[in-house]
Amino acid sequence: IVGGHDAANGKWPWQVGLWVFDPTSSQWNLTCGGSLIHRQSLWPSVPRRHPVTRHFKVQLGRVRPSHQGRLQVARIIHHPKYSLEYGALGGAEVALLKLKAPVRPSNRFRWIRLPPASSSFAPGTPCWVTGWGRIAPGVPLPPPHNLQEVEVPIMGDEICHWQYLKEGKVIKKTMLCAGSEGRDSCHGDSGGPLVCKWRGVGVVSWGSEYCSPNFPGVYTRVTSFLPWICHHIRSS
Fold first, then answer.
1. In what residue span(s) does the Peptidase S1 domain sit (predicted)?
2. Checking CA distances to 67, which of 17, 27, 153, 205 falls within 20 to 30 Å?
3. pTM for this model (two decimals)
């Protein structure tokens, strides 16, 4: 998170941290964020190159990385339109993780509210994004690695489209842009929530290569995938 500050314990109770096991180093690494959306489901940012569920664990209810109480994953579900070739730029970078056991809401964690399908957010709407990613290009979050938060305004689709067209990138209808100079998500925040009016409206997806202040962050638009999300929640 660029331009942010420490988040208070319990302020973002749906925030999860996704730990991935690296067989080469035999270490677990906190690689990205996510949101608890149901007692047994969450959305993260999951690359396809890690298909083994035992290589994932989920951290809940903590603002600092912790090895305690991490939850096991039973299943990884990628959206059928996700393209390995185009990745986030393909417009369907969304996945669901099913936990091995359901969790009960507590004073430390609960699931996030999803927006109605008809929701729209005008340019300038204040929102918040959270994560444990870099705080500047190439600069990791320093110890004690407290979860960061930053307020970012929604950017109009047309303005965002023209910004990224200069780099040869296309903003699709399934994407949402937010950010302002010096305030943005960055590498390592992927999968984390964009929260507007206390609803999870976006998922950190991609942006400029160096978290440039001249470009907004790009998020997966949750309303574009509500039928798919709800289908899999009901099936659990």
1. 1-234
2. 205
3. 0.94
